[in-house]
Amino acid sequence: MKVLLIEDNRDISRNIKRYLELDAWVVEIAFDGQTGLDMALSGDHDIILLDGMLPVLDGFEVCKKVHENKNIPIIMITARDELSQRITGLESGADDYLVKPFDLKELETRMFVVLRRSQKEAFKEIVHGNIVINLQKRTILKDGEPVHIPLKEFLILEYLITHEKVAVSRADIIEHVWGGESLFESDKLDVYISNLRKKLSPEMIETIKGYGYIFSSSKI
User: Given a cut of 70, is residue 121 above it in pLDDT?
Assistant: First the structure.
């Protein structure tokens, strides 16, 4: 995942960058609002961490301009805790708001939450052929009729859809659905994948031998 960090405090920027890179995030930094805006509009970042008070161009203005031009999740980071500032940030298009000082683990957790939320919105409804999948309502229609699947199966399908056209490992799916890996859960995963193929389409989930699965809506 690629992160754009727009923060003029170099110590804070360095600490955030160092922490996130330990978990394999790719972090780019801008130290003023205008540079950050230019990088945001021209780049391919997955999420933006944006300080509210920046030189050259105010962070709230940066947030507004990014929101007007691109659909990128934004977490505002600021030293101000006044309600009016939080409202301003959210009205500018921010997806979340974090007040300094904060724990870096909390920051990363919020990043994952915001990303999952944005991915669900991006894949809110998938329509291909005779199948309609709505992730937010957790409903599936086939030929106009509801398809009832257990929660675990839907969670697997949801995870594959939000990683469309990306090979997802068995371990990642098990961690997402069950919260851990075991031989028993690995066996259950095979059964759930088989059930999904039978209920929806046998070609929608491709097996990557020795690794996991890949979902492609174009195959539905």
Answer: no
